[in-house]
Amino acid sequence: MATILSIVPYKIFPAKVGGQKGIALFNRYFAKEIGLVSVSVKSNDPVYAEGYTMLNVLADAPTRYINPLNVFVIKKIIKQYGATHLLLEHPYYGWLGILLKWMTGVKLVIHSHNIESLRWKTLGKWWWPVLWQYEKFTHRMANYNFFIQDADRQLAIEGFRLSPEKCVTVTYGIEWNAAPSRQEREKCRQWLQQQHDIGNNRCILLFNGTLNYKPNLDALHIILEKINPLLLLSGLEYTIIICGRDLPDSLNGLEAYSGKNVVYAGFTEDISIYFKGADIFINPVVDGGGIKTKLVEAIGYGTRAVSTENGSIGVSKEDAGDLLHITSNAGWQEFVTVIIHASQSPAPAVPVSFFEKFYWGNIAKKAAAFIQR
């Protein structure tokens, strides 16, 4: 049986945001299917590593990405645990993985969370072509390549000239495999109404995301400056709840919008209450890469979602059925029209096929089977 040594290059515990959850939950379920040991930074608390061993041997300093001594430290761990595969989260440690592949004979697996070079391109970084070449070389040297969604997989096959047989989609997932009941959703809605003084007849719209991440912050500005003014003229009775940490000081807690049907809830320990209690999740994200993890969670909770085309990448209408409404990337009047239309009828059931694709247990089984075939 294969034994995986996974390198987690940054702090993921306790997992609170999408990127942290993407690794923490994948490893938790992956460890149920295959032998797993993780090497990570010293700031990660190994008590959260459920079902596998986490070794805190990497420094937290940025220099950890270029420290050649890590080659010998991890080589020793590979031998100690009899690792057959080395899994890298993101391509940045590609040089390290390739050296260890040559030195120890382990098979190299790259777990891509998006096409990193293109993500940095959308964020305006001039050096993205250099990263593209490095990312391309890393993936070409790997034995197996995991991609977060089908579009990234196909782009890498064509752009990096990868063999399709070496590539598989290992998407972001959710931990539940059935939607909450109508009674549970109603209970959460009542809690939101009481917590934020929302009337019974108002449509609750939700946006959630880490607000110091540029694509999320841009989406927030779109909500405040494009979508909300149109909603105010629409006649719809609604409240927009904004959840997420690291709101810029320049927005001053969104106090200027408190009389304009906007509530800032800040970071919430249990975001599931907000997803289950909201009528519609709005996702006006127009840039960034990978898959929008909050969209997966919203659909999984049975909440309607209105998303731009770019924001919905990785979650198709075939996956989500009538719960997902997709608009053009800059058509904000269209976005508002779809919100109003979606608010006028109860949310349909979550398709069974959605959980078949996005439940972590199924995702982990698929990944383990792919590298053990």
Any overview of this molecule?
By secondary structure, the chain is of the alpha/beta class. The protein has 2 domains: 3-174 and 357-372, Glycogen Phosphorylase B (Rossmann fold), CATH 3.40.50.2000; 182-349, Glycogen Phosphorylase B (Rossmann fold, 3-Layer(aba) Sandwich). 41% of the residues lie in helices and 18% in strands. It is built from 14 helices and 13 strands. It has helices spanning 18-30, 69-81, 94-104, 116-122, 128-141, 150-159, 182-196, 214-232, 271-277, 293-300, 317-320, 332-342, 352-358, 360-372, and strands at residues 3-8, 35-41, 53-58, 85-89, 107-111, 144-147, 167-169, 203-208, 238-243, 262-266, 280-283, 304-308, 324-327. A 7-stranded parallel β-sheet has the order 3-2-1-4-5-6-7, with helices on both faces. The chain has a 6-stranded parallel β-sheet with strand order 10-9-8-11-12-13, with helices on both faces. Helix 6 links the parallel strand 6 and strand 7 (167-169). Helix 1 crosses helix 14 and helix 7 crosses helix 9 (271-277). The chain is elongated, with a radius of gyration of 21 Å.
